[in-house]
Amino acid sequence: MSAPASFRLGYVPGVTPGKWARIWADRRPHVPLELVAATTAEAVDRIRAGGLDAGLVRLPIDRSGLHAIPLYTETTVVVVPKDHLLTAAEETTAADLAAEAVLRPQDDTLDWPDGPPGRAAAYEPPTTADAVELVAAGVGVLVVPQSLARLHHRRDLTYRPLVDAPGSRVALTWPDAENTELMEEFIGIVRGRTVNSTRTPAAKADPAGRDGRPSKKPAARRTPPRRGTRRR
Fold first, then answer.
1. What's residue 224's pLDDT?
2. I need a surface site. Which of 43, 56, 156, 164 has the fewest CB within 10 A?
3. DSSP of 27-88, one letter per residue?
């Protein structure tokens, strides 16, 4: 069976797979890593359909037919105009947003067990990018993972950590089937395994525990000459 032409990795906005892609290029120079931008829902659907080998997505997802390992959790922030009252402090809380119109884009992935903070804005923008534009227009504020605030940075906006908000968990997901060699390689990369990890086949040791170099025979011990008995 011929080797795959590439390893197809989906990733959601805000996630930066560049470091892992560089490590992959060093370890698998003959198998290109194909990066495919997608939403979490798109990535999950394409993995199930066989269009992607794996995906870096935001939890929660429907894990039916999928493996998933959480990689890290992002800080949640509130995006506001630079002259907003919330910028007076270095961080803020959900209670501080009680009187604010909070934009809730349709691609929002934050999981609020007790419901999102603030008042729902009159308009529900289709994307986070659209919501950022509305924040700049003074329509409301926006709560997002920090990486998305950085991705959609504008000079007239800033953000503050929302300390009591749920974090955004980023996970690696792939089909719930026997892992291919390339899948094992990528799992090892994101988990920080080195090329010399225990999953890398070790060189066979000499059965006698020797290092293979010719051994030197020990030098023969010279027997000292016997001393004669002198007669008187």
1. 54
2. 156
3. H-TTS-EEEEE--HHHHHHHHHHTS-SEEEEESP---TTEEEEEEEEEPEEEEEETTSGGGG
